[in-house]
Write a structure and sequence with these properties.
The complex is a heterodimer of chains A (243) and B (273). By secondary structure, chain A is an all-alpha fold. Helix content of chain A is 80%, strand content 0%. The model of chain B is unreliable at 1-12 (pLDDT under 50). The chains are: A mainly alpha (243), B alpha/beta (273).
Chain lengths: 243, 273
């Protein structure tokens, strides 16, 4: 059985693969959003919580960063029913991926918050903001700028980590590729198609991430360093140069 | 302290009437990691009074200002603003620290201007000024923006509302910071070395705004090395040395006839150049 471009292109737009890619996308997004929520809470507990909350956050981060996602997924889906907790495949995949992601994001968010100048907290207190107002209006928006690049990296990783959910029969790209490979045993074509799909998703995400970064960089970036007055003068000078 | 002394200090100033005591500080002590920075400071500031707090770096003057504004908790003593005990709840002679959101409410009575401006870099100039009036005081957005524009005109920056802080010079940033503090309609303005981080040519534009503010009757405590400002606008000059207030005088007396040895040393250093 030789390599066949025909199979490759056929599989690339195969319904099973496209549905798998779509599942990979939404599973990644949902898990990431939930993980982000968990990460923010864990970071807050760790930074500002009392002793009990801090220990809870530390334990959570330690546990989920210290064990493989694969094992976490298997425990959640096939292990927990033993003690009466029955979750569907989709629930297990989302919960497992989100819990794992949250543990990593907690540390990234914590670093982002610590990167904000202490004077910002003083200034926000000085204009009468409570802790919650300072966090939401002043500290987190500025921390976001630092958080976005590693966060994008994490999401890139998430798109690929979802493939592990195939072991609990989540029908995402990897699982669907496995099924497709069973039909005509075009193993190389099928898995290269799957790999191609991951590349496409990751590339699209890269472009989106650039946009998001540019948005958060706007107040700080080099474009902002040129005052509108100076810009006008530069334009005028350049205009004069053109014939 | 009365109107007469303020009047004699600057001949060109119109007579100024000082009102009731608005800030009353009694025996405030504060230590950082075992080092006592404030060693029992007492001070009363009256409505419309402008007090300049001078002293060498490390003398505790910035710490005192930050304690008044509740940015630093005090170890002992009392700070009252408009009669209200700051930072604590008093019950049966026992006092317990106030929770964060109630301290935040108290802090709205005081406006603070920092040495490093501390503008919010992710917000435009007008959002810097209106974020707290809108989100904290729940003012109507358009109302708050209109007032912010008036404040920007007052500090001489009417055309900068959509700029980001990074696009402004230091002097401009500090004037926006003053506008931001004023937008909360504080009873007292506190200035923590407002011109120390500025290039020399930008100092005057900030001091002008401050002198203007003092003429309009704003109560002000100003930590500064700008003795020109003290001469022009202060009703009283206080000298802080190693955590205590060692000299308290009108600007006139302070510069011509200092009573304490510390004041004489301080002046000899300040006025040498």
């Amino acid at each position: 059985m030789n390599w066949s471009w025909a199979y490759f292109f056929e599989y690339l737009v195969n319904d099973l693969m496209i549905r798998g890619a779509w599942t990979t996308i939404w599973l990644s997004v949902v898990s990431m959003v939930l993980g982000l929520g968990l990460g923010v809470v864990a970071a807050m507990f760790k930074m500002y919580g009392n002793a009990v909350l801090r220990v809870i956050a530390e334990f959570y981060i330690w546990l989920f960063r210290g064990t493989p996602v694969l094992i976490q997924l298997v425990i959640i889906y096939t292990g927990l029913p033993q003690i009466g907790i029955r979750l569907t495949v989709i629930e297990s995949a989302i919960i497992g991926l989100a819990l794992n992601e949250g543990a990593y994001l907690a540390e990234i968010i914590r670093a982002g918050i610590m990167s904000v100048d202490r004077g910002q907290n003083d200034a926000a207190r000085a204009v009468g903001m409570s802790w919650r107002e300072r966090m939401w209006l002043i500290i987190l928006p500025q921390a976001t700028r630092t958080i976005i690049p590693p966060l994008g990296n994490q999401f890139n990783g998430m798109l690929k980590t979802t493939s592990l959910a195939s072991v609990i029969s989540m029908e995402e790209l990897m699982r669907n590729a496995q099924m497709l490979a069973q039909i005509e045993f075009r193993v190389l074509e099928v898995y290269l198609v799957a790999a191609t799909w991951y590349l496409i998703l990751v590339t699209i995400w890269g472009l989106i991430q650039q946009r998001i970064e540019a948005h958060y960089e706007k107040p700080f970036g080099p474009a902002a360093a040129v005052s509108p007055d100076a810009k006008k003068q530069i334009e005028k000078a350049m205009g004069a140069g053109h014939v | 302290m009365n109107a007469d002394t303020a009047d004699t200090s600057v001949a060109s100033e119109p007579a100024k009437t000082l009102g009731e005591p608005i800030i009353v500080i009694e025996d405030v002590r504060k230590s950082f990691a075992g080092l006592e920075v404030l060693k029992g400071v007492s001070l009363t500031v009256r409505q419309s009074e402008v007090v300049v707090l001078a002293g060498r770096s490390g003398s505790g003057k910035s710490t005192l200002l930050r304690c008044i504004d509740q940015l630093e908790p005090i170890d002992s003593g009392t700070i009252r603003v408009g009669g209200e005990l700051m930072g604590f709840r008093e019950k049966d002679g026992k006092r317990t620290p106030l929770p964060d959101h109630l301290v935040a409410r108290q802090m709205r009575q005081l406006g603070m201007v920092f040495q490093n401006f501390n503008l919010f870099p992710h917000l435009t100039v007008i959002d810097n000024i209106t974020v707290s009036p809108i989100k904290v005081l729940k003012r109507k957005r358009e109302e708050a923006r209109a007032e912010a524009r008036a404040l920007l005109a007052r500090v001489g920056l009417p055309e900068k509302e959509n700029a980001y802080p990074r696009q402004l010079s230091g002097g401009q940033q500090q004037r926006v910071a003053i506008a931001r503090a004023l937008a909360m309609k504080p009873k007292v303005m506190l200035f923590d070395e407002p011109t120390s981080a500025l290039d020399p040519e930008m100092i005057a534009e900030v001091l002008d705004v401050m002198v203007d503010l003092s003429r309009q009757g704003m109560t002000m405590i100003v930590v500064t090395h700008e003795m020109g400002f003290a001469r022009a606008a202060a009703d009283r000059v206080l000298l802080m040395h190693e955590g205590v207030l060692v000299e308290e005088a009108t600007p006139e007396e302070f510069f011509t006839n200092p009573q304490s040895a510390e004041a004489r040393v301080f002046l000899s250093k300040i006025l040498r150049h």
